[in-house]
């Protein structure tokens, strides 16, 4: 993608069931009423065996719709890195794809220090975009092209190219079987990692409205998490139907950087998930910091539109 140009919900408890009032039966119909009650009791007992209330109580609660965050730790990040793709590489390392013409790269980064451990400089006419790791291969797409590259994670000089069928190359992620891709629209693709054939495509929606500018992607616990370009929000998306399950609001991160004098920063972009240790990392384009955060549910507007929840983020002045 190009460079960037609480209300409280009140939930009412369900009304208690109305007491059942039995009319005094007529003496003439007493025997018939007693028989009917016995039949009902038998049916009710059968229902309880087949559908015990304990099973209903054991159902997990519905996930929250809105999340904020708690800051766990901050790390150094290269302020010249125009972050387009980010992922956790194990052993306190990250893999990162950076953009901009003549500045695009693929790199391996030491998490605690931000030091670049390995680096591949891309050709000047290439604009690096999304990046993901499937086994020992790094997949990268490029902006305004259908071209991509596959790198050996241990040796960036070992690489080959591929062609995909998305309209454009923005974000990439994987569940270990398929590649998820975004092209800057509201489409979320699923591609075969060998043929790059589009196996499935869904439209990302929230409250029946399309969510455009789906950007950098990460697959986390059965969901696709996506930066929404030019906003400070992450959308948690169902890959099955494209519905946005919930939103994560990260407005404070960029605002605090700006207020600290980092006026050259661009938008929030970059999500990395350490599955083994359940650590979540986020950063942005030209950000001098990378953050480890924990998300926490918050209350929010029940009927907020995407535009209200995640307005386009102008640079803070």
From TrEMBL:
It comes from the Eukaryota. InterPro entries: QCT (IPR007788). Pfam families: Glu_cyclase_2. This is Glutaminyl-peptide cyclotransferase. It comes from Urochloa decumbens.
